[in-house]
Amino acid sequence: MRPFRFESAADVEGAVATVAEHPAGAYLAGGTNLVDLMKLEVTEPDLLVDVRTLTSDRVEELPDGGLRIGAAVTNSALAGHPLVRERYPVLSQALLAGASGQLRNLATTGGNLLQRTRCVYFQDVTTPCNKREPGSGCAALEGFHREHAIFGASRSCIATHPSDMAVALAALDAVVHVRGPGGQRRIPLAELHRLPGDVPQDDTVLEHGELITAVDLPPADWAVRSRYRKARDRASFAFALVSVAAALDVQDGVVRDVRLALGGVAHKPWRASLAEDRLRGAAADAENFRAAADAELAEARTLPENEFKVPLARNMILGALLELAGDQR
Ligand SMILES: Cc1cc2nc3c(=O)[nH]c(=O)nc-3n(C[C@H](O)[C@H](O)[C@H](O)COP(=O)(O)OP(=O)(O)OC[C@H]3O[C@@H](n4cnc5c(N)ncnc54)[C@H](O)[C@@H]3O)c2cc1C
Ligand code: SF4
């Protein structure tokens, strides 16, 4: 590991100013992803600023009925929060499907959103990787890509975003609060992460030095009927091959509202808008659920080793919707 400086800032403004002034500076939260990448020499910050005690570690009710999640709230605390479990079960389930108990006790909301891809070539500095070293090539295209993207990939990068929590937050229309050198801004979760295009080194739309301070969940009556399903190689301690965050609101047998987001399939949590559009106002039955999943997956572009993700995603969307519809009969 390379030498680096470690600082604790007095407040958010100080932390933002310090990191913004250092091109190779970074924020440290739980460290469960950043420190691993430093040990692998994938990333080599010369300065770390501890933000665990700077941002809120509380989940607060908002006047409109939504919730505000401080960036330092741990994945364990968020998953177990009574209001999250009651009003947004998909979020609690997504968090509990990720990592392990020990990791969730350390991992934070801000750090979870900004964790880097688990592409094996990204983590191996002896291989070409455009995300780690722009212009060097993408070893996954001709190599091991069973876990890689089927939506929105480019010739530059076919990596997926690994967060389970972010998939649930995308389905819930969450909004991210950010503080940067130029002030504050709010970013819809669905717009925080980006597709790789020609600049795969940028995972998100954040500028260097911007700090996530909180995430808002809007009020959502429909979210009480929500589920997270995750397919993975082992029953625990494994990233998603495909995951589905689903919410379904049925009245008199008709879909009044539906939210669907997929994980493990793209460089960002993939909101399945085509499927959602097809379902709103339609009868809540297996035929329509299947047609909606097919409409979304018609846009998939596969490679030889990840073709299996298409039928897997289709079955998972169908299963989640049938389960939610069954609960409302
Ligand atoms: C063995 C293993 C298995 C795992 N399995 C899963 C899984 O199945 N599903 C899953 O979703 N995750 C999984 N994870 C990943 C884990 O969830 C992340 O490592 C964790 O959420 C990152 O949070 P952190 O607070 O430790 O972030 P850190 O490692 O501290 O930081 C991560 C990144 O975010 C930046 N950062 C941190 N906080 C902020 C902030 N407030 N504003 C701006 N930038 C910030 C850091 O600079 C860094 O770039 C696994 C990890 C391991 C090691
Ligand atoms: S898929 Fe992306 S992260 Fe993986 S090797 Fe290619 S460029 Fe790197």
Automatic annotation (TrEMBL):
Domain of life: Bacteria
SUPFAM superfamilies from the UniProt entry: CO dehydrogenase flavoprotein C-terminal domain-like, FAD-binding/transporter-associated domain-like
All residue ranges annotated as the FAD-binding PCMH-type domain in the record: 1-222
Keywords recorded for this protein, A-Z: Oxidoreductase
Pfam families: CO_deh_flav_C, FAD_binding_5
InterPro entries: CO_DH_flav_C, CO_DH_flav_C_dom_sf, Diverse_Substr_Oxidored, FAD-bd_PCMH, FAD-bd_PCMH-like_sf, FAD-bd_PCMH_sub1, FAD-bd_PCMH_sub2, Mopterin_DH_FAD-bd
Name recorded for this polypeptide: Xanthine dehydrogenase family protein subunit M
Organism: Saccharopolyspora cebuensis
